[in-house]
Amino acid sequence: EQLTNDPIAILLDTAIKGQATGGGTSTTFDWGIAQAVQNAGLPVLVAGGLTPSNIGECVMDTRPFGVDVAGGVEQGPGLKDHDKVKQFVQTARQAAMDASQGF
Questions:
Q1: Cβ(74)–Cβ(39) below 8 Å
Q2: So what's the pLDDT on residue 95?
Q3: CA distance 63 to 83
Q4: Which of 39, 51, 52, 63 has its CA 20 to 30 A from that of 83?
Q5: Quick one: pLDDT band at residue 6, thresholds 50, 70, 90?
Q6: Model confidence pLDDT, tens digit, residues 49-93
Q7: Strand, coil or helix: what is 103?
Q8: Buried b (16+ CB within 10 A) or exposed e, 48-86
Q9: Would you state the pLDDT for residue 20?
Q10: Distance between CA atoms of 91 and 87, rounded to whole angstroms?
């Protein structure tokens, strides 16, 4: 079976000038960029600085294809906080349901 050369979606994350690696910055980017890319017809996965306290706004503002979180739900480097993960998922799901009512 052959895979397509056309992307199914694109992941947008924050890069900081002068930093050796992209991603893992714990910094959000202008979500208007995600809206513009999606409005052009390419679904977006949003990453960068997402936390339980901002995921609802992100989902409501961008209506992403998906989201990516790592540090925003950690209690220490590489150690996930189960309560933060649960709150993140619940908030993201609720925001997605609320956003879908706007169509």
A1: no
A2: 96
A3: 24
A4: 63
A5: confident
A6: 999 999 999 999 999 999 999 999 999 988 999 999 999 999 999
A7: coil
A8: bbbbbebbbebbebbbbbebebebbbbeeeeeeeeebee
A9: 65
A10: 6
Q: Which of 67, 57, 86 is CA-nearest to residue 13?
A: 67
The sign of the dihedral angle between the CA atoms of 50, 91, 56, 37 is: positive
H or E stretch covering 75: strand 74-76
Reading the block at residue 36, the tokens are 């513009």
Res 52: pLDDT? 98
Count the neighbouring beta carbons within 10 Å of the beta carbon of residue 46. Answer: 27
- Structure pTM? 0.86
User: Which residues make Cβ contacts (< 8 Å) with residue 24, sequence separation at least 6?
Assistant: 70, 71
> What separation in angstroms does the CA of 87 have from each of 39, 69, 94?
29, 12, 11
Measure CA 63 to chain center: 10
